[in-house]
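On clarity, I found the account of how folds are encoded harder to follow than it need be. Since the whole study asks how a given chain folds, the encoding of that fold should be made plain. For the editor and my fellow referees, an illustration may be useful. An entry of this sort, consisting of the sequence and the corresponding backbone structure tokens, reads as follows:

:::
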Amino acid sequence: HIKSIDNNHLVSTGQEGWGEGGFDYHGCDYIRNNQSHNIDICTFHLFENNQNSGYGPIEWIRQRVDRAHFIVNKPVYCGEIGVQVSRGSPDFSQQMAHRNSLYTDWYGKFSDRVIDGGGFWLLSADSYPDYDNYTVYYPGDAETCSIISNFSAKMAEQRGLSYLKPIILLEDKEVNEQEPLEFQIPVSNPS
């Protein structure tokens, strides 16, 4: 159905990557779900604090990417990564260093395994509340933002694409960083 409305975008399951060769207790089968002719690209998630796969994160990445490329024969991206940090904790700076170290390792493994894309959870302005301790703040978490940006630039370079840092252009608008930013995005209906 999605392709009948818009055939210019890739479709994925959005699943976290659980299950192989039969449905697991999450109700997922990574390989079978992604083998559907309606699915264009495989996806998985990687969160340090809830990785119950029995594998370490590097092995989880390797297995998801290899299964996508060599069994399902489709491209793959990691839709979300995350490491919790508690901003009010006395060891906050150590937690941030740990997160940055893991992000560096994970994004490095993405490049090594020739992953087709990688995201993270969750980028917010410094003023946004951190509801789940996974938030990456811009510009406050400068080192983490730099790790993510460098990965994006490397992905673009590997594919021969131009990398432009994301920006929002607001015509005739004055932006006050202390106030919420509101804008409208025009949407066209293809029908």
User: Anything to note?
Assistant: Strands lie at 42-47, 76-82, 123-125, 136-138.
